[in-house]
């Protein structure tokens, strides 16, 4: 802690090797210090300004939600950039990739290299889950690992009954967040083996998982939650960001 107090954030030189090393250490830092620490916030902001984090477009050719994976009580927008819960069970084809119990949908595109960042609009909602998953996540029945973050194939953040929780492998990490967040940032870095969640309104780090080597490509995964006694009707929206050549090159359907 004394070292942190004597560190001048303005002198941090974020070349690529150092950026990857610091990202890997962020998880341990977040467990020890409050997320408002200036050097941590400066790290995330500097990665954006230096192009170390790749924003992804929500255009259908970049990243869009795959309606063939969506639970029958989920409505996917025409452009695949939002998902809404409906209490009506839709008559949809029973496909192997469709979630039949958990209210999930994943992106059509998977990513297997580079650094990627999404911002998800959750304003006005009282229950949601979102994160990243391997395509091998369980999708049928009531098994625990069908839920985001409950198995070893996915990493998630959840908001329910006013509390924020990060999940992986069925292990919950309750987050000390007191204000209502309207936009969540999801960052994955393949070089650093890192999955991070941020309060995108202020670029505040919330929680990071230090994965190491990813074993498969990653898909964005969303769960808008049920109606929660009539308080959770709004959709989850993938916010627009300008496409970049590197994000197009690193994207693949898998």
Automatic annotation (TrEMBL):
SUPFAM superfamilies: Concanavalin A-like lectins/glucanases. Residues 43-245 form the B30.2/SPRY domain. Pfam families: PRY, SPRY. PROSITE patterns: B302_SPRY (PS50188). This is B30.2/SPRY domain-containing protein.
């Amino acid at each position: 802690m004394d070292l942190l107090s004597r560190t001048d954030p303005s002198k941090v030189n974020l070349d690529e090797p150092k950026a990857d090393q610091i990202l890997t250490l962020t998880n341990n830092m977040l467990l020890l210090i409050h997320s408002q620490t200036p050097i941590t916030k400066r790290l995330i902001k500097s990665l954006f300004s230096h192009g170390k984090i790749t924003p992804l477009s929500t255009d259908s050719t970049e990243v869009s939600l795959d309606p063939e994976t969506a639970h029958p009580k989920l409505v996917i927008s025409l452009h695949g950039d939002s998902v809404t819960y409906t209490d009506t069970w839709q008559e949809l084809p029973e496909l192997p990739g469709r979630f039949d119990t958990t209210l999930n949908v994943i992106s059509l595109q998977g990513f297997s290299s580079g650094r990627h960042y999404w911002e998800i609009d959750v304003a006005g909602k009282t229950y949601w889950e979102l994160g990243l998953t391997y395509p091998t996540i369980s999708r049928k029945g009531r098994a625990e690992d069908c839920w985001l973050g409950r198995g070893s194939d996915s990493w998630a953040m959840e908001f329910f009954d006013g509390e924020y929780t990060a999940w992986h492998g069925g292990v919950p990490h309750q987050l000390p967040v007191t204000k209502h967040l309207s936009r969540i940032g999801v960052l994955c870095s393949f070089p650093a083996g890192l999955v991070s969640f941020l309060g995108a309104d202020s670029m505040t780090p919330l929680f990071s998982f230090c994965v190491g080597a990813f074993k498969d490509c990653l898909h964005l995964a969303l769960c808008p939650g049920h109606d929660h006694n009539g308080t959770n009707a709004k959709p989850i929206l993938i916010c627009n960001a300008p496409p970049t050549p590197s994000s197009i090159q690193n994207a693949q359907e898998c």
